[in-house]
Each structure stands twice: as structure tokens, then as C-alpha cells.
Amino acid sequence: MRVGLAILAMIAAMAAMGTFLWPGLFFRSPLFLLLFILLFAQMTFCGLHNLRRLRSPDPRSCALFLIHAGVLLILIGAGVNARSGLTATMPLQPGEEGDAAAALELPGGEPLWLRLDSFDITFYDDGSPSQYYARLTARTAGETRQAEISVNHPLSLSGVKIYQQSFGYLFWIWEEGGEPQARRLGERIPLTGAALELYHYIPAFDEETAADTGRLRPDDPRLVYLVREDGGGEVYMGLAAPGEKIEAEGKTLLFERVDMYTVLRLKTDPGLTPAACGAIMLMAGACLGYAAARTRFFKQ
Amino acid sequence: MALVFANLGAFYGAFLLYAGAAAAFLLRRSAGALLLARGGFILNIAAVAARAARAGALPLANSYEFILLFALAAVFLFLLLLGRGQDPAVGGVLFSLVALLFLVVFLFLRPQITAVQPLPPALRSLWLIAHVLAAVLAYGSFLFAAALAAIRLRRSAEKEDAAFARRLYHIVFLGFAALSVSIGLGAVWAEQAWGSYWTWDPKETWALVTWIIYALYLHLSRRRAWTERTACLAVCIGFIVVLFTFFGVNFLLPGLHSYA
User: In this structure, is residue A101 part of a structural domain?
Assistant: First the structure.
């Protein structure tokens, strides 16, 4: 038990340090992983020991077994996920179809196509978002089905879970006389000896203070653009509302409207079932352990 | 508007009564202290109720709302166990800590007392209620255990008391069970909302650190070499980590729990 407790103490100390020192890298470091492998070995030994005690079961022994076996299953689930779990993100604009199987690099060649039928944000009265809805048509080898996903309500299909993760804006802006084109923030449109960069989007602009209200509801949208001269020359900034024309460096651009695209998170996690069982056992074991301790406390 | 004033009045009233109870307990005026403590408890409930009426839901979304419930849980446990051999001196430490929590709200989180923000989409889940209520019970138990341990440390010259050790173990186990449930339910919720049940987010990581510290206490407290003084020190250190998990992480280490 001493070894197990020492490993737990080291994990706690390193995890605490890890939140301050390069957290992105720290928790994937070989040393940190090694501690979990050692903990796994120790918990296996401990679980077997507790199993032997269950021959004459009492609430405390059951609790100990549930807690230790629960932690073991969580570690197994995390290990399986690290080895075989797949994740990908998929940006989709309305009407666009994406190959989820290819994005995830799913083995076995099972097709899974996702088409975004619509994407909407609903708002509270104060202009902050209340929910994000993506309506999808999902196509697999045997069926086509429509579904709506939102934050906290993912879709599970053919072993793949699909989450509403984030979203972005599409700006329909093109040169007068040219083809309508949707562009994203950061894109540059070539002009004569310069380029117009789509720099920032303000969904709710306040005319009086000439500032961003910070609200997400598109009450009075503005596109902030930069015109940069080629070769690192002068830069100037402008604002444009949908429906306005932008005159810059001898060219006229039409800024028609702003649409939104969604960003879906796709994942497969074969380790989720053991991890979920482990979490249930751990919670049940902790509660049972408390009940057993409480009974003893009041008996004494 | 009436609810805003009710919330404000109940918060400041509870603050003053808790601070008064702390002072009275420290001055060994137990009868008066208990009266103030019970009054503070009722006003604390009123502050939660007024907040719930304003928000239209249980108030669980930000630091101010969490502190209201955190204090309520700790005071509830104190009052519940008072008749069962509870040393009133513990109240001096417990109500000082509770008053300090309210002081933190007053000094650093005052805008949250009056402002009620609608829930962001990720928080619109039934899992929020179970996850946060379990955390509140865990934190309240750990605060109560720390108050018990601190008083015992002050009287370290006294001989070891088996009944005290069992009481401390029992309270810490309550917190540990509640923290296990909170972390477990939080993981289920994170899987639904963010697509990952564990991301090494600072709040998650420090909750795990807290869980490990109390797990170590529960393992070691059954050893012969483990003295009452060591147990009390471990419980006090555990509570410092609990405070860091709540305040330190919120203020210093932004992450997915930044709204908390």
C-alpha cells in the first residue's frame, strides 16, 4: 500500500505543478504517463487483494473493492482511448457535406457523411447566446437520418459521437462584376498594389459610441477590414455593414451578407464504456464507504 | 427590484451575523453565538432563495452563488452535529472562515451580488445541479473538518482522543464521498457538453489533487504511526488546497471552468 500511496502523492504533486508549467505538454510527458502505468499496476494488485476480502463481505470491504476497481476501470478506459480513440473537427457551412469517416480516418471503410442543413443561434434578451443548433443529415451505408444537435445534446451514430463545438462567420464579399464568394476572417482580397484583409467582425456595433457592445446577437453587424499596401506599405482600416459597397484602391467590392458555419467535433472512444462503469463504481463505492464509516461512528 | 434588495439585504445580514457569531464563539459566549449563527443561517437561506427567484433556477452558476451554498453547507453541518458532543469552540474557527468567504465576495466579487447573468449553453444541463450540489457538500464538509482540526491542533497538549479521531474521519469521508460524486458527475457532464470527460483543465486537475490528498488521509488515518496531530495537519492542508481549487484556480488559472 505504501508504494501505491507514494505514487498517488507523486501524481498529485506533479499534476499541481503541471497546471503552472506548460500544461499542454506536461500531462502528455512520458514521466507523467509512467506514474499512471505504475498506479495501474498497483491498483490491479490492490483490487485483487480487495477481491479476496470479499469472501466474507461487509459494507466496508465492498466499498473498498468498488473504489479500487472503479479507479482501475477508469485507467483502463483512458488507456484504451489514448490508444484507439479518434477525434477530429469538421467545419461545415449550410448545404455543405463532409466525409466524417475520412476526417476521423475510421478503419474498416464504413461511410459516414454529414450535411449541415442549417445552423442557428438563439439568444437571451440581453443578447448573449442561449443555445447553438446544428441540423444535420447523416448518411451511412444503410440509412439516412436527420438530427439536431446542440451544446449538451450530441448525436451518436455508428459508434461516432458528434458534438456542436463552435462556430464561425462567412462573409459574402466579392469584386463588383465578379462571382459571389464566401470568405472567412483573415482572408485577403487582392486589390491594385494592395490587399483588403477581413480583420474582425462586430455583431452588435454601437453607433453612438462607435464601439463593439460585446453582444453576439447580430443587432447591427459591421465588418472591420484592413487595406494593406503591397511590400509592407501603409495600412488603413474601415468599417462596412452588410449591403454596403467598399471602395478601396480603385476597386469596388460588394459586401452582401454574413452567414454562419458550424464546427463539429467528431470522436470515437472505445474506452468510454469501461471508464463510465469505473466512474459509477467509484461514486457508489465512496458513498457506501461513507455509509459504513457513519454506521460505525454512531455505533461507537 | 424587490428581489435585488432582498438578496443584498440577506447577503449582508448573513455576513454580519456570521462575523458576530465567530466573535462570540471566540469570546466563549456560546448561547449568544448560537443565536447569531442560527440567524445568519436563516438569512443565508433567504439570500439563496432570493437569488433563485431572480435567476429562475437554483443559483449555481458563478462564484458568489457557489459561496452562498458553500457557507450554507458548512453551517448546516455545524448546527446538525452541535448536539452530538460538538465543541462550541469549533464555531469560532468555522464562522471566521465563513465570514472570510463572504468578505472575499464583498471585496472581489461584488458585481456578482447584484448582476444575474443568463446561463451559457454549456451550463444549461441537469448535470450542473448534481455536480455543483455535490461539490458544495464536499467543500462544506472539508471546511467543517478543517475547523475541527484547527481547534484540536491548538490543544495539542491534550492526550489523543479516539472519539475525536473517529468524528474527524467521518466528516472527511463525507466530503470525500461527495467530492468523488462531484468529479464523477462532472466528468459525465463534460463528456456530454465538450466531448471529453477529462481534459486536465486546471479546475479538474486541482479537484483531483484535492481528492488524492483526502484519499491519502483516509488511507493513512488507520495506521498506528499516524498521530492525531498529523491527521489534523493533513486536514488543514487539505482545506488550503480546497480553497486554492476554488479561488486560486478561478483567479490564476483560467480554463473551461472560468465562469465558476
Answer: yes
